Every structure is written in C-alpha cells, then in structure tokens.
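Supplementary notes for students who missed Thursday's class. We covered one full example, reproduced here. Read the sequence, then the structure, then the short commentary at the end.
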Amino acid sequence: LTRLPRVPGQVTFSGVPAGRPEAGPVVTRCRELGLLLNVAGPMTVRFAPPLLVTDAQLDEGLSILERALAG
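Structure (token representation):
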C-alpha cells in the first residue's frame, strides 16, 4: 500500500454549529439561496470553499448562511 505524501498548506474545510437541532434544513435552505454546504454532523454544517476565493465571495456566502439561519 503506497502512502500519499503530505501536502503543506492551509485547510479550507470548516465546520460550524448550525444553531439548530438539525443541520439538514439549514443546508437545504442555503442550497435554495445559492450556497452549497454539506452536513458534517447532526448539528454541524461544513464549508468547503475553493482555494482561491475573494473576500466578496466569502461575505456573500456568510450572508446567505445568515439568511438561512434566520428562517
């Protein structure tokens, strides 16, 4: 079995609490609003942004997440 070499650099995956009993509905609402996330646990959503992302794109994604959490 060959081992893959470790690649140094920043990890862009990030999990955050959904602030709700279930993360699934938050992820579904984000998708409806144009933000792709996935469920990382019963109450956790996971971001996986591209390695090259602008501040404006991050701001837009966080804005969508805020709207999804608001209702």
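Commentary. The chain has a mean pLDDT of 80. Residues 55-70 form the longest helix (16 residues). If anything here is unclear, bring it to office hours.
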